Amino acid sequence: MARTLNAPLAGAERSRALPTVRIGPDATDRRWPAVVAVAFTLAQLVLVRPTMGLGWDESVYVSQVSGHAPAAFFSAPRARGVSLLVAPIASWSSSTSLLRICLALLSGLGLYLALRAWRGLFPARVLGAAGALFSTLWVTLFYGPQAMPNYWVAIGALAGVGCFLRARADHRDRAALWGLGASAALMAWMRPTDAVWISLPLFAVLACSRGWRRPALPLACAAGLASGAAEWIVEAHLGFGGLGARLADASGIQGGLGWNIAVLDQLRSLSGRSLCRPCTGSVPAAWMVAWWFVLPLLAAAGLAVAVRAGRTTRTLLPLACATTAGIPYLFMIGYAAPRFLLPFYALLAVPAAYALTHLVTASVRKRRPVAATLVTLGLAGHLAVQYAVLDQAVDRTVAGHRDWARTAAELRRLGVRPPCLITGHRATPIAFYAGCRSAQTHGHNANTTTEDIARTAERQPVAALTTPKEQPPRFARDWEQHRGGRLRLYVAPAPGEAARN
Predict the structure, then answer these.
(1) Read out DSSP for 363-404?
(2) What is 284-306 written as a DSSP string?
(3) Which residues pair with 161 in a beta bridge?
(4) Arithmetic mean of pLDDT over the chain
(5) Helix (H) or strand (E) holding 21
């Protein structure tokens, strides 16, 4: 027999009879989310090469737990969640391929669990379509197997909103409460500030609907956020002079958070750029960015359908959380990176998928083939665009990482071997590749002084890196100059040689 879930709705919906959602075999079928998750995992392994080296931010996160290189400077905006995620592999293996494969498997499992969190709220075919929409975006495929926080914030947001709706509809659903707490903790472990922005509509719903009378729901959400952010807050007091000081430092590193309209910056980054700072140049061709406008329109159409079907809250809430997730990265930051909006895309995928499935299934029988054909053609075009951009992004990234690896190999050939120190241009990732410690005397990652670097050069190998157009730092002007890829390498005299001189 089919079960039912009577989900209370907010506002005007409380004053009238609530629609009953039937949960038959289709809604409890796990196959759609499972198929999407497996396909997503395989696509990562095939399209985003496991041999792709670690990026700049990845090298920072991985170095915190890796025995391959000393820990890189950990700046104020970062959180320890990614380092914990990769620790089971990175703590004993330096294989990037193994790490990528494990992250691809974990990201597929995370997508499956996040979609399952919505069971009973929408039919399984809608959840499968939502997973397919989100997982086929080039930015999702690109960052799924990477040691970066944004995909996991998106998974936590998607799962958390689903668990919140289920727990609010049925206070006896203990699994939903635990899922809400775990999802909030996951977001906060990865990026505490993002977790707060995403959770604002959840607390607003509780306040407006007197949800505080059932303390389990707000407690689960608050406890999850607190447990995830606790380490970040403690670290703020121990290493940054307090929470306010860390937030101020984080804002400064991000260019000073305030009223900065970054919509065009995000559009410019959709050509496959991993970071757009400064974000100059023209907006990519229309075929590259059309999906960026279509996805919110589909989500709005899904809301309109949901209002007529009596599913307003379960469609409006992910839209509201998507909005608050996007606000800081669309209107408060002076640069862009496609990964910043992954939670935004994940939350929009549910109402957008609802609109697409409704278009096909609710059409007059004679028109269903036409509707299905149009949707199929649209999705085929979507896949083609996403693959084209993904392929460019992977090629560009692989080439950049190979340059870093070649520079690191050249430094080792010149005698810069562990224990060693590297400073200057691109020092953070290149130092990780070389197994050295990185240090900077200025900029966002400043963690040492020129005097400390000079003293270090007296006892271990040190190198300073510059671009061909830059002058070497004052302490390195007498060091031997070499060429390594696109960089100039200034290598300090060997400690024994310096003592003889």
Answers:
(1) S-GGGHHHHHHHHHHHHHHHHHHHHHHHHHHHHHHHHHHHHH
(2) PPHHHHHHHHHHHHHHHHHHHHH
(3) none
(4) 90
(5) strand 21-23
Which residues have CB under 8 Å from 361's CB, separation 6+?
A: 368
Query: Maximum Cα–Cα distance for the chain, whole Å?
Result: 91
Per-residue pLDDT for 472 more than 80?
yes
**Cβ neighbours around 403 below 10 Å, total:** 17
Return d(Cα 71, Cα 58) in angstroms, integer: 12
Query: What's the alpha-carbon Rg for the chain, to the nearest Å?
Result: 25
CA 393 to chain centre: 16
347 and 326 Cβ atoms separated by less than 8 Å: no
Q: Do the beta carbons of residue 423 and residue 465 sit within 8 Å? A: yes
How would you list the strands of the sheet with 421-424, edge to edge? 437-439, 421-424, 462-466, 487-491, 480-484
Bridge partners (DSSP) of residue 432 are none
The CA distance from 293 to 315, in Å, is 19
Whole-number percent of the chain with pLDDT over 70: 92
Burial 480-493 (b: 16+ CB within 10 A, else e): eeeebbebbbbbbb
Q: What are the φ and ψ backbone dihedral angles of 424, each rounded to 5 degrees?
A: 105, -155
| Token pair belonging to 81 | 């969640």
Tokens of 462: 């040190």
Angstrom CA distances, 54 to 47, 271, 349, stand at 16, 21, 29
- Provide the total of helices (H) and of strands (E) in the chain, helices listed first: 20, 7
Given a cut of 70, whether residue 71 has pLDDT beyond it is yes
CA distance 426 to 218: 44
Q: Say what the pTM is.
A: 0.92
At 159, the amino acid letter reads A
Q: Is 29 helix (H, G, I), strand (E, B) or coil?
A: coil
b/e map of 63-82 (b: 16 or more CB within 10 Å)?
bbbbebbbbbbbbbbbbbbb
Does residue 8 have a pLDDT over 50? no
Q: Which residues pair with 5 in a beta bridge?
A: 21
Predicted confidence at residue 16, as pLDDT, reads 38
DSSP 8-state class, residue 467 = -
- Rounded Cα–Cα distance for residues 6 and 120 (Å): 10
3-state DSSP assignment of residue 481: strand
Q: In 306-454, which ranges are E strands?
A: 421-424, 437-439
Strand, coil or helix: what is 25? helix
Q: How far is CA 276 from CA 242, 337, 350, in A?
A: 30, 6, 28
> Under a CB-based contact definition with an 8 Å cutoff, are residues 482 and 414 in contact?
yes
Q: Using an 8 Å Cβ cutoff, are 302 and 355 in contact?
A: yes
CA angle (63, 69, 70) in 5-degree steps:
75
Buried b (16+ CB within 10 A) or exposed e, 231-260: bbeebbeeebeeeeebbbbbbeebbebeeb
Structure tokens at 219: 């407690």
